[in-house]
Amino acid sequence: MGSVLPYMEQQGSHTLHPPRVLIFPFPLQGHVNSMLKLAELLALQGLHVTFLNTQFIYNRLLLHTDIQARFAAYPGFLLKTISDGLPDDHPRSSDTLLDLFDSMNSISKSLLKQMLASDELGSESSPSVTCIIADGLFGKFTTDVADELGIPIIHFRTIGACSFWVYFSIPNIIEAGELPIRGKEDMDRLINSVPGMESFLRCRDLPNFCRLSDLTNQSLHHLVQETHHSKRAKALILNTFEDLEAPILSHIQTQFPKIYSIGPLHTHLKHKLATVASSSQSSNSFLEVDRSCIAWLNAQPAKSVIYVSFGSLAVIVKDQLMEFWHGLVNSNTRFLWVIRTDLVTKEGDSAQILAELLDETKERWFIVGWAPQEEVLAHPAVGGFLTHSGWNSTLESIVAGVPMICWPYFADQQVNSRFVSEVWKIGIDMKDVCDRQIVEKVVNDLMVERREEFERVAEEMSMLARKSVNEGGSSYCNLERLIEDIRLARSGRFGSSKLMRDHTP
Ligand code: UDP
Fold first, then answer.
1. Distance, CA 53 to ligand 1 centroid (Å)?
2. Which of 38, 97, 392 to mutate to test the pocket of ligand 1 (most atoms within 8 A of CB)?
3. For 260, phi and psi rounded to 5 degrees?
4. pLDDT score of 91 more than 90
5. I need a labelling partner for 446 at 20 to 30 A (CA). Which of 56, 190, 324, 456 fits?
6. If you measure from the C-alpha of residue 485 to the centroid of ligand 1, how many angstroms do you get, rounded to a whole number?
7. Ligand 1 centroid from CA 393, angstroms
8. Which has the minimum average pLDDT: 40-49, 134-143, 265-274, 353-362?
9. What are the start-end ranges of the E strands in 311-356?
10. Taking 60 as the threshold, does the pLDDT of residue 484 lie above it?
């Protein structure tokens, strides 16, 4: 990649240092991935960026990516690390996320303050952080530190506008007496207290932690609190685009006047890199990418393969693995399945389980431990995606124009899958069911019976996604405004550009 010219700016008689933005993601794959893309977009525009990873995550990125070489091409780009306070052998898995929250709240907070106050996060040409973009998932402690030091802070939520709005509305749902859920027979009851979702949001579409009968549950409380802390930030960044989520964005804007919807970030970055003739095949993966599946895909007919992946955190039990396996095999559809070594819990090692399956119908499927997902979804042989409905995966599928079968696991995924099926109509939601006959049926529906219907809508949405990051598109313009505001932040004028697009209807 060619080097980007250093950015210096005259104001009055003196030269200002380039703005330095600190970007601090929550240490999970989807969060780091999208925030690294934002970091590169800002660096491409000449901003100096400090990207702060936990040491644990940074070590994994060093093992599996070219992160150091890639960002060395940007003047003023710094990769820094901070402790997450947990011992090295802590699993940092989906069922121990509260440990990570608690530890970062107590240990990382004081470290962050110290690093910012001592200019440890700056360079000679831009010594001080002039603006912080922090993951809204740990909005409280980062905003406390920013306020104490007088640095403007913007929150980045890596989930969609739809789930952000549901998280934000949980206190209203509780106050309206619509939670707790009263048993299995109550799951299809409509929820009326999330503005804009009254006609389709059911109890079963609420984030999984709303399924608990105890509404004082710590995970629930934590996510609601952190979401409300975003009101203290100067602005909110969302990885979405207006043509996808305009109605929900307009509801969010009643509470958060300044929103920059600048997604889909992976496409936005790809587009900007193409204009400087740079390669965009880099990976931000915490696991080793197995590219052998691309050669296998190259040998398959167009749109014949369903890609199956449950993201970086979801875990399943052996029975569920077997139901998916038999459903996929019985559907007679070719499939490419990502089976991480830690995908199957409790009943033993995935490799051993798979060894029992491997001699059936071998030519019709391919298994990898971790795939180059964006490339896979863009491959002409891929015609569908069986997904856990993580937000990055959802956006990547939308951009590729690939219809989805959704099997959400936790957090925002229950909401995303409802939007995919009921609002955007680009797929089928099979949440809460894991049965081989259902799997076989929905795979056939998506890939054969209703294929044209889904393809038409998915292609239209893909076109709108790509349009949003082209010159003059909504995400393109919102990114320009964000950059203008970051520059103004140096002189205490954050947000005084003529700015924001009004989402109110
Ligand atoms: N991913 C990947 N290879 C895989 C599976 C996933 O590169 O085999 C990437 C995927 O492209 C996405 C991220 O991992 O960017 C997963 O994020 P998402 O928000 O979809 O789900 P999470 O892992 O946070 O549950």
1. 18
2. 392
3. -110, 105
4. no
5. 190
6. 30
7. 6
8. 353-362
9. 334-338
10. yes
CATH topology of domain 292-466: Rossmann fold (3.40.50)
Q: Which pLDDT value is given to residue 93?
A: 84
- Hey, where are the domains in the chain? 9-162+215-283+471-491, 292-466
44 contacts 73 by C-beta, under 8 angstroms: no
Adjacency order of strands within the sheet including 48-54: 78-82, 48-54, 20-24, 131-135, 153-157, 235-238, 259-261
Interval 406-428 mean pLDDT: 97
Pocket test for ligand 1, best of 287, 339, 373 (most atoms within 8 A of CB): 373
Kindly report the protein residue whose alpha carbon is nearest to atom 18 of ligand 1: 390
**Domain 292-466 in the same topology as domain 9-162+215-283+471-491:** yes
**What separation in Å is there between the alpha carbon of 391 and the centre of ligand 1?**
9
Peptide bond into 180 cis (omega under 30): yes
Residue from 29, 93, 376 whose mutation best tests the ligand 1 pocket (most atoms within 8 A of CB):
29
3-state secondary structure of 186: helix
The pTM assigned to this predicted structure is 0.94
For 180-194, the pLDDT digits (tens) are 999 999 999 999 999
Query: What residues contact 226, with CB distance under 8 A and at least 6 apart?
Result: 136, 137, 138, 139, 140
Q: Which of 84, 135, 205, 412 is catalytic?
A: 135
Residue nearest to atom 11 of ligand 1 (CA): 373
497 with 276: CB under 8 angstroms? no
Please give the residue that has the higher pLDDT: either 122 or 108. Answer: 122
Residue 349 pLDDT: 67
CA 417 vs. chain centroid, Å, equals 14
- Rounded to the nearest angstrom, the distance between the alpha carbon of 125 and the centre of ligand 1 is 35
Residue 89 contacts by C-beta under 8 Å, 6 or more apart in sequence?
A: none
Structure tokens belonging to residue 252? 């969010």
- For ligand 1, residues with CB inside 6 Å are 28-30, 33, 285, 309, 311-313, 338, 370-371, 373-374, 390-393, 396
Q: Is 111 exposed, middle or buried (0-12, 13-18, 19+ CB in 10 A)?
A: middle
Note if 222 is an active site residue.
Answer: no
Measured by CA distance, the residue closest to atom 1 of ligand 1 is 373
Which pLDDT value is given to residue 205?
A: 98
Catalytic: 379? no
Q: What is the pLDDT of residues 314-369, one digit of tens each?
A: 999 999 999 999 999 999 999 999 999 889 987 666 767 777 776 667 789 999 99
